[in-house]
Amino acid sequence: MPRLAISPEFLRGLGALTRPVRRDVAVAVRRFLLNASAAPHPERVRNCRDPRVATLRLADRHRGVVVRQEDVYWLLTVLPDAEAWAYAQRHRFGVNTAVGIVEIWDAEALERIEPALRRASRTGGRPLFENWCDSDLLNVGVDAQLLPLLRLMTSESHLAAVEPLLPHSQYAPLAALARGGSLAAAWRELDACRSRVADEIDPEDLLAALRRSPDRAAFTADAAELERVLMLPGWCTFLYPPQHTYANWPAYEQPVLITGGAGTGKTVAALHRAALLARAATGPVLLVTFSQSLATELSARLDLIIDDEVVRKRVEVGNVDRMAHRIVAEAEGRAPALVSSDDLAGLWQEAAVGRFSSAFLLREWEQVILAQDLRTLEEYQSAARPGRGVRLDAEARTTVWEAVQQVVRHLRESGRRTLLQLASEAAGLLGRAVGDLLGDEAPGREPYRHIVVDEAQDLHPAQWRLLRAAVPAAPNDLFIVGDPHQRMFDTRVALADVGIPARQFRLKISHRLPAEILSWGVRLRGGGPADGLVAGNAAMFGYRALDYGARPMVRGYVDAEAEIAGLVSTVAEWLEEGVPTAEIAVAARTSDLVRTARTALREAGITVKVTSLHGMKGLEFRRVAVIGVADGIVPAPDALTPADEDPTARAHDLQRERGLLYVACTRAGETLYVSYSGRASPFIPA
Description:
This protein is an alpha/beta fold. The chain contains 27 helices and 25 strands. Strand 18 and strand 19 form a beta hairpin.
């Protein structure tokens, strides 16, 4: 019986077919795997560049392209007949001689570009790769057939022109060298393209290369495995090399932090890490994030990855607030009462004194006192105040402390607490328990052996102290993913300061965003560094996309009514183009705009997700419309600290508002539409 290796490109092609054709293709693939009657048989392709290539007739006027080695068929794509034959003739397939992964080459396109490069080389200029001999290039995995083209290049623009035609494992090290990097820099780029080290590499052994390429092939030995690959989203099956490496590393001796920009697959790595730990059965696993809505989404996605009910039960999915609430409730024997936001605002208004407004006092409490778990005036007097721009002398600190304590006393006397107070108290309860974390002699402690944290940038220091107390310091204790540039709340913390000396790794490639949306989003966000999670600042340098698409559409309207009409028209066009409603989202900064857009779309017979900018966190869509991005709405005036009160806090508020818009815009994997009426927000790139 044949064995199948399914390519993610095949699944994308399958999803683009009409439903009847898609059904016929799936049936034909099952028959081929099972060697059943009426199964398609491989047909050789004339004039192909790789003799291992064949096609399979999978449906009426549709063929699959396969590469065969021994009894394994790598199913690459499904296309209409003529396109399938052209694809089979145009491509060749090889093995990277340095790292042993599979590579797909558009050989025909490279042949066509050679005359243009040869003409360009005659105009003069120093050869781009003159500092490296052929053996140097071959040692970093450059394909021997590519060397003649490289010797024609005299500028980085020549290399950029052929980037879409090259495997990423070829382009990445060459780009490092073209920028003036060393061979060591090229090797670092190449090393990021593999998920495991190969002891020996046979350039003719495509099968072994496929097994070293988890992002290019999923092996299916039987009908059940095939069904799983065909039915599940691609992220359940295919992991890009860095994702695969970080998620499947056997043992981390210390906490691990994975950072990366939008679309780099941080959450996917976290989900697969939680699944790996659950299958290892070394103890209970907590997969945690900062909000319950995101926790619900994570739980549903984890259900897709783990199909074994026993294994799935080893992973608890939740948010930090619920965890803190449960710990305090168990310790006190009753559910703790929470103060409402309106009541809390009233208490801070009452406490405001002199030049210290209610907003200033609240931020000082959350960002300094609760963040550092300060218990006395003496501790507060000597504490650093990172991120706070107004200097306070000893007298001023005493005034602030007394005002804060007034609110704390009111809360205590009324038996109410805030969520951050609950987190701080829960951390204290766990910290005071005696004995082994997992032992019976430590009642009240959370019996987690592993904790996986998603959206780490939005957790408060009190919540981090709770998580640190909830898992023993041991190998594979904390696996953390986040991005300081996507922070939606003012919660800056270096993990080392809360007892989590994490080893950091970075994901640099966005696999969701086309380059046009990514570059626009980076300019919107501001490409400068962001603080938090690690000491110092995290930069966006090296963050890039491999795919290309349409530029974001930015539309200005004369008034709000025209803007809403434009939104309805745009979404209607998307639906007419065949985009499913589940793949479209609309977002706005204010609740009024959300309600207006939802009503207008509903009256037009359109039902798509309409939510706030905050509500877009952690979600993905093909097409996204962000409306109301006007001056006076984004940034939201009431979310900004007055400059005369605390200029540093105002600067942080502006960056947080930028981050909020950036998060919403980078949910779009295909098309981004941004609109405003009147004057555009100052955040919109020129």
